[in-house]
Amino acid sequence: MTAEVLEKFSTLIITALGLVAALAWNTAIQTLFTEIFGQAGGKLVGQFFYAILVTVVVIFATIYVGRAAERAKKAEEERGGLFGRSKD
User: Fold this and answer.
1) Residue pLDDT, tens place only, 22-59
2) Do residues 14 and 21 make contact, with C-beta atoms less than 8 angstroms apart?
3) What is the pTM of this model?
4) Cα-Cα-Cα-Cα dihedral of 22, 14, 65, 51, to 10°?
5) Which of 28, 16, 22 lies closest to 57 in space, CA to CA?
6) Residue 59 DSSP symbol
7) Can you tell me the distance from the alpha carbon of 80 to that of 68, in angstroms, rounded to the nearest whole number?
């Protein structure tokens, strides 16, 4: 049960930190696209490019984190549970 609680807590913390990071980068990237493409002409193009770029990054990050979590879960099972104890 402890491993499950830690896993859920970890997921919540990672999600919250990801949201904070995304919000922090959002303004910076939008400003960059405005500088590159101009205010009116590049706004729509910039938003679509930004959305595609973020989607691709999120896909790869999700795959990487999922694989890492799976490896950690396998390693824990091989060790006999959290702190070397058997699961109850």
Assistant:
1) 888 887 877 777 787 777 656 677 777 778 888 888 88
2) no
3) 0.51
4) -20
5) 22
6) H
7) 19
